[in-house]
């Protein structure tokens, strides 16, 4: 029998990374096609009621919308490769700058939500699965269904109305006015990601202010996917607890707590890692709604604004960034999965 | 009866048994009622001895093996006595009987492919098992013991850090055996260890199990439905039908001179190179929620008599040693008048369909 050394791991990673390119190409093509299929052209959609026909046509010409579709497609691909996503119609900003300035807030929000979802979802799922059909299990399952089914804006409003007051938590924005002002004045916005910048500044007032602002949006978004984790972990625990290798471990006299942790729990968490990749896409979608609910100055909030403005260039740019983020995350998840589960590697 | 029997057995074996089961019963609760999967089984096993447990699927062989190990599913109940090193396992606290597992009672399973944790290296499996039972050992000592066990099973030390999926089925079964043996249990249940493997590997595993008792003086309960393996690897054989051991004794005695019709039919159904036509026993093992009255085999028995349908057969000594439960063998004085009349074929089919 050939020995599949761990040397196959680098090969696997290389394969996955190389696959990113065709995946991104497919996504770019989809974004391009979907936006062209929409009736009318971006220029008249965005500015049609403000400019006369001649001016509109000049704009179209300048932006290349009068070129054959294939030429437009090629120009689009080339510009994306050059990381040039164009300039927004509505407020004349470099799309990349919009992404840079607002992406950080979205990233902070999604990561915080993810941490909350994992910290809440996995333990609850483990408990529910380990103590199947007991009162805790039923309550946890109910919680899981409710948190997954409840619309984000509804949960957000509930938290704003009933939790924010008693706990003294802000309900809007990513930081207080002073924090934003002084951080910018003192040149402390080094990474353009507020959450990181305040920690870099080392100022406990700023840190507290930013964390307080983060709390409710992150919980709102975290609850959404925590339900998915609860159900997934629970089902996996039920499966691994009945697996042959758990029984074999029991037959070897391994202590029950060790059997539960090392054989049942650990193995039950493997599929969760796979799902994390899928959940990330859901989170970005959820981020759009959460950001709107909490006036969170993120990409999602911007995206909604640009959609309302019918700013196709901006939408195209932001959607592309979202899509690439999902692809990159899914590759990272695949690699982590291969590190944990040796069977994935070939 | 049980004292009488254990006397007879210890005379026969002339050594203190490692494990002796007395009147062991196992029930499974179902919505239709309790399934009496094992219904009053007794046997003894001397050090280094191998007892083959044969019978059709669904007659309680695996349940008996698991019952001895305490590996029964939730909702199963067991009863009777299992004496192991002077203590009754079945009346122990669950915690204490759990502690016997691995170090004293070993188990080898039917499906080696799924019995190893796919995320753990072979080395992790060994470390976990050895450390559990001997926490004082250092890492090097653990490794040395594990490598010794692997070498006995013909697995090179270079494979120590491999993952389970990197092994073939036969190798995985040898790994499972190595893992059971490294703890040096005095009693091992091997539940159809070769069923999932091909014939060549099967022969290899049987050889390994044979060596095992020579090297470690391990007693083995070998559950199988392969009569050939029993002939090859066992000292004694117990034939199980519908939750009871209907005949047991030395392999040569039982196979050359089967007393119970079920044993005879089972042997006739064995396929070998000389087989010209296929023999099978018509019908299937009975529903154990509501087993037939009298001898449980009587609806399928080609030699069933009137008494077989009404009275439980008596456990008696076989002519050349061992035990058997069949009215054909006796005891004559307990068969009521007219009880020796042959049962009619119609009754057979009716009972079969019921």
From TrEMBL, chain A:
Keywords: Cell membrane, Membrane, Transmembrane, Transmembrane helix, Transport. GO terms for cellular component: plasma membrane. Its main location: membrane. The chain crosses the membrane at residues 12-35, 105-126, 138-159, 214-233, 268-289, 313-340. It is found in: Cell membrane. Gene3D superfamilies: MetI-like. Residues 103-337 form the ABC transmembrane type-1 domain. Pfam families: BPD_transp_1, BPD_transp_1_N. The keyword Lipid metabolism does not apply. It comes from the Bacteria. It is a multi-pass membrane protein. InterPro entries: BPD_transp_1_N, MetI-like, MetI-like_sf. Belongs to the binding-protein-dependent transport system permease family. This is ABC transporter permease.
């Amino acid at each position: 029998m050939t020995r599949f050394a761990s040397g196959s791991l680098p090969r696997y990673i290389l394969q996955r990374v190389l696959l990113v390119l065709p995946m991104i190409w497919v996504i770019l093509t989809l974004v391009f096609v979907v936006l062209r299929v929409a009736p009318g052209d971006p220029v008249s959609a965005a500015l049609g009621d403000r400019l006369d026909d001649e001016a509109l046509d000049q704009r179209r010409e300048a932006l290349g919308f009068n070129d054959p579709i294939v030429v437009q497609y090629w120009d689009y691909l080339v510009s994306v490769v050059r990381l040039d996503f164009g300039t927004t119609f509505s407020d004349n900003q470099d799309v990349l700058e919009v992404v840079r300035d607002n992406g950080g807030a979205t990233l902070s929000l999604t990561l915080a939500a993810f941490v909350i979802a994992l910290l809440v979802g996995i333990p609850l799922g483990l408990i529910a699965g380990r103590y199947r059909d007991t009162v805790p299990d039923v309550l946890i399952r109910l919680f899981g269904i409710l948190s997954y089914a409840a619309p984000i804006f509804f949960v957000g409003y509930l938290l704003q109305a009933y939790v924010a007051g008693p706990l003294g938590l802000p309900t809007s924005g990513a930081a207080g006015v002073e924090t934003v002002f002084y951080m910018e004045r003192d040149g402390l916005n080094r990474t353009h990601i507020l959450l990181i910048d305040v920690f870099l500044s080392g100022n406990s007032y700023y840190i507290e202010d930013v964390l307080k602002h983060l709390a409710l949006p992150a919980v709102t978004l975290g609850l959404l996917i925590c339900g998915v984790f609860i159900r997934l972990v629970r089902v996996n625990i039920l499966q691994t607890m009945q697996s042959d290798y758990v029984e074999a471990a029991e037959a070897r006299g391994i202590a029950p707590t060790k059997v539960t942790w090392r054989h049942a729990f650990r193995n039950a968490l493997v599929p969760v890692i796979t799902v994390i990749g899928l959940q990330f896409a859901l989170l970005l979608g959820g981020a759009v709604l959460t950001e709107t609910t909490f006036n969170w100055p993120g990409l999602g909030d911007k995206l909604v604004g640009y959609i309302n403005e019918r700013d196709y260039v901006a939408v195209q740019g932001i959607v592309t960034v979202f899509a690439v983020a999902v692809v990159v995350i899914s590759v990272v998840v695949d690699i982590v999965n291969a590190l944990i589960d040796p069977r994935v590697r070939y | 009866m049980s004292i009488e029997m254990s006397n007879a057995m210890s005379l026969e074996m002339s050594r203190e048994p490692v494990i002796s089961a007395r009147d062991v019963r196992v029930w499974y609760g179902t919505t239709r009622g309790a399934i009496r999967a094992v219904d009053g089984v007794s046997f003894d096993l001397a050090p280094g001895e191998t007892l083959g447990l044969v019978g059709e699927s669904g007659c309680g062989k695996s349940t008996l093996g698991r019952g001895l190990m305490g590996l029964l599913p939730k909702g199963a109940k067991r009863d009777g006595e299992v004496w192991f090193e002077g203590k009754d396992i079945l009346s122990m606290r669950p915690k204490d009987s759990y502690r016997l597992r691995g170090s004293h009672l070993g188990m080898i399973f039917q499906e080696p492919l799924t019995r190893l944790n796919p995320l753990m290296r072979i080395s992790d499996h060994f470390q976990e098992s050895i450390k559990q039972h001997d926490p004082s050992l250092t890492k090097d000592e653990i490794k040395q013991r594990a490598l010794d066990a692997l070498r006995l099973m013909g697995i090179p030390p270079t494979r120590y850090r491999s993952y389970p999926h990197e092994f073939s089925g036969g190798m995985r079964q040898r790994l499972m055996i190595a893992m059971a043996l490294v703890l040096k249990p005095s009693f091992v249940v091997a539940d159809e260890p070769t069923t999932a493997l091909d014939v060549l590997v099967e022969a290899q595993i049987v050889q390994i199990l044979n060596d095992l008792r020579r090297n470690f003086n391990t007693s083995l309960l070998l559950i199988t439905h392969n009569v050939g393996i029993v002939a090859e690897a066992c000292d004694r054989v117990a034939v199980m039908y519908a939750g009871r051991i209907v005949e047991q004794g030395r392999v040569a005695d039982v196979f050359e001179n089967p007393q119970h019709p079920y044993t005879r039919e089972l042997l006739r159904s064995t396929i070998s190179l000389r087989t010209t036509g296929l023999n099978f026993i018509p019908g299937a093992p009975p529903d154990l929620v509501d087993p037939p009255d009298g001898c449980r085999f009587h609806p399928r028995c080609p030699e069933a008599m009137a008494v077989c349908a009404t009275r439980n057969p008596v456990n008696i000594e076989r002519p050349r040693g061992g035990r058997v439960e069949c009215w054909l063998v006796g005891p004559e004085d307990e068969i009521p008048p007219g009880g020796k009349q042959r049962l009619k074929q119609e009754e057979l089919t009716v009972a079969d369909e019921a």
